Amino acid sequence: MLNAYTDIAVFMTVAILFIMISLLLSRLLRPHHPESGKLATYECGKTPFGDARVRFKIRYYIFALVFLVFDVELLFLYPWAVTLDDLGIVALAEAAVFLALLFGGLLYAWRKKVLEWQ
Amino acid sequence: MYLAATSSLPLRLYQWTEQLFTDLGLPLWLLAVLVATVKAALIIGFILINVIFLIWLERKLGGHIQNRLGPVYTGPFGLLQTVADALKVLVKEDIIPAAADRWVFMAAPLVAFVPSVMIWLVVPFAPGVQARDLNIGTLYVAAMTGCTVPALLMAGWSSGNKWSLLGAFRAGAQLVSYEVPLILATLAVVMLAGSLSLNDIIRAQQESTWFIFLQPLGFVVYLISAIAELNRTPFDLPEAESELVAGFNTEYSGFRFAIFFLTEYANLLGSSAIAATLFLGGWSGPFLPPFVWFLLKTYLFVFLAMWIRFTLPRLRVDQLMNLSWKFLLPVALINVLGTGVFVAL
Amino acid sequence: MSTTLLVFFALAAISLLAAWRVVTDPQIMHAGLWMGLCFVGVAGIFLLLTAEFLAGVQILVYVGAITTIILFGIMLSDVEEVQPQEPPFYRFRRRFGRWWQPALPLLVAAAFLVALFTIYGQAGWSDLQPVGPAASTPAGLDIPAIGHALFGPYALPAEAASVLLLSALLGALVLAMREETLRVFRGSPGSSRVLQPGSGMAGREVNAGETDHPGQDEKKEVGAGT
Known about the structure:
The complex is a heterotrimer of chains A (118), B (345) and C (226). By secondary structure, chain A is mainly alpha-helical. Chain A contains 4 helices and no strands. In chain A, helix 3 packs antiparallel against helix 4. Chain A is flat. The N and C termini of chain A lie far apart (55 Å). Chain B has 345 residues and is an all-alpha fold. Chain B has one domain. The longest helix of chain B has 38 residues. Chain B starts with a helix and ends with a helix. At the A-B interface, helix 1, helix 2, helix 3 and helix 4 of A face helix 2, helix 4, helix 7, helix 12 and helix 14 of B.
């Protein structure tokens, strides 16, 4: 039963087990002598200062948001790409409108210099 | 013949096991799990052997491109250098920094590695030699590739190191930017084949021609985006040694670091295999056995990626972002629409 | 029947546990990661229903993109600001005497449950026959069928989705441009670029994790009142 998808689950499990077993093997072989200098955060040999989880530019977030929008667009295009042969010119026109709207958004972002990296 | 010999032995083995299961009265789903486990183990073995070879190849190739020799001492032509390195790293101390978020830190290599293995579920090695031909083949590959970003963010954030965090941010922004053109380039191939299944895509190429000739633009977009997805030079900003130490895996040591390294090369191999399947007709080809064709085409991409790595300098962040959003994305969109006109008419 | 059911319960347990941790984990970054796990569990349930396209989309969009955005959002916002200093449900426990505090979310959840069951009851899914081991994807769930539906009878909703996506894109751009203005404003106080009064961005830090802006809400309320 459910042969097609057991494989996915089994692959996942075997990959996890492979890593677990290798780590276990390594644990038996490797030394373990922690001390404060070794466990310190690496900052090029200097004493680390401040919290490492500092805030970075929001620009990263903007790119992630734009990516999400295009990702969702792609999921509409998957069934379209498979069936375009049957659906013909009408579906092509629909997808063209679909893409043109988003491409317009991209052009707007381009013009407003949001896609620049400072 | 080669093909008959390889395909009949596993088949007989399978039939024998099936008989054993029915004799012992064991449930059949257990057989399915067993078969899948064997497949997964074989594929992990395949990945490991190839990665060991790939690392040697990269060092050797890089050496010769830069007028050096590369590894020479361990084994013939230094072939066993990677084996020695792997053994070394296995007995190295595993340091988890005091500032690290322990559980996330330990889980991150796992989350990175598992998708890189799972991609191989749908890769066709030869006719009939494929772990599972999913109907959603290319979508599955894209989905698995997409899982890398959370893994890198986990690694970078949990390390409690500023380099790691910055590296993870860069990696995230980069992977996210290049995933859209990558998928769009794949979609153009899907449109020509009319199916998401990788087997159907190979079949479609046997009927017409290799899609690289029909999709030159798509191929270029795929190549650039794939190299960027792999974080390789010229797109290796997330781990730029000269500015970020080692990026998201700065704090990783010992075998956990090795897992990231392994994942990187497994992904290189996986992307190359997918590219060979999508654009070069996969295992199909004259004279030679299909599996040899598959390896040859895969390694052609690997070689291309390595050649590019040792030839081009690293991009700046703004160039990186411009290339994706202002060049690759519009080109890929136009390519998809152009292919659409070609297919629909 | 038993194996499928067992797998379903395992997946459901993973998803529910992960979802529970999302709302209870005091470390917000962990909550984001638990959410990723919850999505993976849901993808598994989709696979169990042989809705493989949906499962792929679930991983691609939810695990690959949404989780990334949430993690980015958390990492880019001030952690001290967001991190709760109190244990979960502290306020609930403190004010347990006020009956509506626990009752309100429960009421919303109950209403949602009723609505879901009404919809599911009308969908007639209970009439569907279980798929045998030989059959692969049942008709209606495979990708060509989705394509035919999406660009045939449901073309207009699909186009509307594009408009929705466009508005989301514009929203992201507005966020970016607000940050831009803020940067210019902060960087050079005597700059020639002047912030427009009443735009709600002066002196206010644009927080990556926030999506609601009080300024806009006020405007909306005024608009609704008149």
